[in-house]
Design a protein that fits this description.
By secondary structure, the protein is an alpha/beta fold. The chain is built from 18 helices and 20 strands. 34% of the residues lie in helices and 23% in strands. It has a seven-stranded mixed beta sheet with strand order 3-2-1-4-20-19-18, sandwiched between helices. It has a six-stranded parallel beta sheet with strand order 6-14-7-8-10-9. A three-stranded antiparallel beta sheet has the order 11-12-13, with no helix packed on it. It is globular. The N and C termini lie far apart (48 Å). It binds NADP nicotinamide-adenine-dinucleotide phosphate.
C-alpha cells in the first residue's frame, strides 16, 4: 500500500484558483483524520478569495466575512499561497505532474453568457460581469468606463447578479461610500445621471432567480422607488399551481415581496427602479454604433414536455429607450490548457469532481470544484459541499493509489520551479501586507477598506 499522505511522504496537492471552492478544498483536506497534506494554492491575481473580493457586492460586507475562515486555513502548516502565478502561463500541467500527487481546479466562471439577440455588441451594451468586476476593483477591469450620463438603464436577467447591478445603480453616494467599492466607481457613480433602471425577467415572479433577501433590499433605497406592474406580479394558473404544490419557501417569499411592491405607492424619489416580468429583449436598437433602446416582446408561460414553465413570446412588443444595457444572464467557465472541457455546459468535464476525458474515463490526478465543476449556481456556502464531494473522491483515489506519481514531490522542489517561472509571486504573508494597507486606508476614511486596483501597486505594497 502507498505511504502517500504520511509524515515521511505527505500528499501534495496543487489548487488552481483561490476563491471559496479553493479554500473549502483546503478546509476539507485539513479535516481528513491522519492525513499529512501539503497544499500549494495558485492564483493569477496577487490577491486571494476570488469572487468574495471581486464579485460579492461591496454593500454586502457580511458575506465577505467568510474570508476569516479562509485565512485560518491559510495559516495552517503545509499551506502556501502563490499569487500572481497563472496556470497556463507560468506553470503548466507537466510542472504539476512533477511536484504534486493531485491537482484541484477551482477557477470559477469568469465569462458572461450571451443573450443571442441582434445589437448586443453595440457600444453601451456590457456584460454584468464587467460592471461587477469594475466596481469591485478587479485589476483587469479598473480602466473600463460606463456611460452613467444616460438616464435610462436596462439590466437583462433577474438573478442575484442583476439585483447587485441594479442596487449599485440605484444607491446614492452616501449609501455607497461606507462600502469597499472601488474609488474609481464611487467617483463615477457620484456623477451618475441615471434616473430609471429597468430589470427584465423573461418569466414570472414565481420563477425569478433572485433570493428573498435580495428582492427585499430593492424596497429599501434612500432615493429610489421600486415599481412593479400589478398585472406582471399576478401569477398565472400554472405558476400558482406549481407554487401550491412545491411550497418552495424562497419562491413563496419572493412572490409575496413582489406583490407588496406592486401595491406600493410611489414616493416620487429621484430614481425609479422598474422590475419587469414576462418580457424578453429581442433586439438592442442603436444609433451611430451606440445602444439607444431595447426592443421587447411580452411572454406567456407554457408548460414544456419536462413539466417546466417556459417563456413563450406573444405578439405584443414594446420599446424601452436606454443608453446603457447590462446583460446579466449567467456566467460561463473558461477552458484551461490540458484539462478536458465540456463546451455545452461551460465547465471542466467531470463526474462528481473527478475530471474525465471525452470517453468519460477518469483523468487520474485531476479534480475540480465550484462553478467550474457544476456551473454558476448557488451561494458561497454551496461551494463547501461541492468541495467536500470532490475531496471525498480524492481520498478514495489516494486510498486506491490512483494519483500522479510525481518525480520531485517536495515543497522545496516546487518552490524552486515557481521561483524560476515567476519570481514575482505573492505569498500569503505578502498578501497580508496588501490587506493591512487596504484596511488601514479604509479605517482612515470610515470604510471597510480602500482597494488597490492595479497589480503594480499591489506588488509595490507587498514588497515594501
Ligand atoms: P442566475 O441566478 O442563473 O440568473 C440568471 C438570470 O438570467 C435568470 O433570471 C434567467 O432566467 C435569466 N436569463 C438567462 N438567459 C436569458 C435570456 N436569454 N434572456 C433573458 N433572461 C435570461 O445567474 P446570476 O444572477 O449570474 O447568479 C449566478 C449565481 O450567483 C446564482 O446562484 C446567484 O444566486 C449567485 N449570487 C448570489 C448572490 C447573493 O447571495 N447575494 C449575489 C450574486 C450572485 P430563467 O430563470 O428564465 O432562465
Amino acid at each position: 500500500m502507498s505511504d502517500v499522505g504520511t509524515q515521511s511522504n505527505p500528499l501534495r496537492v496543487a489548487i488552481i484558483g483561490s476563491g471559496p471552492s479553493g479554500f473549502y478544498t483546503v478546509s476539507n483536506l485539513l479535516k481528513q483524520t491522519g492525513l499529512v497534506v501539503e497544499m500549494d494554492m495558485f492564483d493569477r491575481l496577487p490577491t486571494p478569495y476570488g469572487l468574495v473580493r471581486a464579485g460579492v457586492a461591496p454593500d454586502h460586507q457580511k458575506d465577505k466575512s467568510v474570508t476569516r475562515a479562509y485565512e485560518k486555513s491559510a495559516n495552517t502548516e503545509g499551506f502556501r499561497f502563490f499569487g500572481n502565478v497563472e496556470y497556463g502561463t507560468h506553470i503548466h500541467m507537466a510542472d504539476l505532474e512533477k511536484h504534486y500527487h493531485q491537482v484541484m481546479f477551482t477557477t470559477g466562471s469568469p465569462f458572461d453568457r450571451n443573450l443571442g439577440v441582434p445589437g448586443e455588441n453595440l457600444g453601451g451594451s456590457h456584460s454584468a460581469t464587467e460592471f461587477v468586476a469594475w466596481y469591485n476593483g478587479h485589476p483587469d477591469f479598473a480602466d473600463r468606463t460606463f456611460d452613467l450620463s444616460q438616464e435610462n438603464v436596462v439590466v437583462v436577467g433577474i438573478g442575484n447578479v442583476a439585483m447587485d447591478v441594479a442596487r449599485i445603480l440605484c444607491k446614492t453616494v452616501e449609501e455607497l461610500k461606507v462600502t469597499d467599492i472601488a474609488d474609481h466607481a464611487l467617483e463615477a457613480l457620484g456623477q451618475s445621471k441615471v434616473k430609471n433602471v429597468y430589470i427584465l425577467g423573461r418569466r414570472g415572479p414565481a420563477q425569478a432567480a433572485f433570493t428573498p433577501p435580495e428582492i427585499k433590499e430593492m424596497g429599501e433605497f434612500a432615493e429610489a422607488d421600486v415599481n412593479i406592474i400589478p398585472a406582471e406580479a399576478a401569477l398565472d394558473p400554472h405558476s400558482q399551481a406549481a407554487l401550491d404544490e412545491a411550497q418552495d419557501k424562497n419562491a413563496l417569499k419572493n412572490v409575496e415581496t413582489v406583490s407588496a411592491y406592486a401595491e406600493r405607492e410611489n414616493q416620487g424619489k429621484a430614481r425609479q427602479l422598474h422590475i419587469r416580468f414576462l418580457v424578453s429583449p429581442t433586439e438592442l436598437l442603436g444609433e451611430a454604433g451606440q445602444v439607444s433602446a431595447v426592443k421587447l416582446v411580452q411572454n406567456e408561460l407554457v408548460l414544456d414536455d419536462r413539466g417546466q414553465l417556459k417563456a413563450v413570446a406573444t405578439e405584443r412588443e414594446e420599446v424601452i429607450p436606454a443608453g446603457l444595457v447590462f446583460r446579466s444572464v449567467g456566467y460561463r467557465g473558461q477552458p484551461l490548457p490540458d484539462v478536458p472541457f465540456n463546451e455545452s455546459w461551460g465547465t471542466i468535464a467531470n463526474e462528481a469532481g473527478r475530471v474525465v476525458d471525452a470517453n468519460g474515463d477518469q483523468v487520474v490526478g485531476l479534480y475540480t470544484a465550484g462553478w467550474i465543476k457544476r456551473g454558476p449556481s448557488g451561494v458561497i456556502g454551496t461551494n463547501k459541499t461541492c468541495a467536500q464531494e470532490t475531496v471525498a473522491q480524492m481520498m478514495a483515489d489516494l486510498e486506491a493509489g490512483r494519483t500522479f506519481a510525481p518525480e520531485a514531490p517536495s515543497a522545496d522542489a516546487a518552490l524552486a520551479m515557481i521561483n524560476s517561472r515567476q519570481p514575482d509571486f505573492v505569498s500569503f504573508a505578502d498578501w497580508k501586507k496588501i490587506d493591512d494597507a487596504e484596511v488601514a486606508l479604509g479605517t482612515a476614511s470610515d470604510r471597510p477598506r480602500v482597494k488597490f486596483t492595479q497589480v503594480a501597486k499591489m506588488l509595490e505594497v507587498a514588497r515594501d
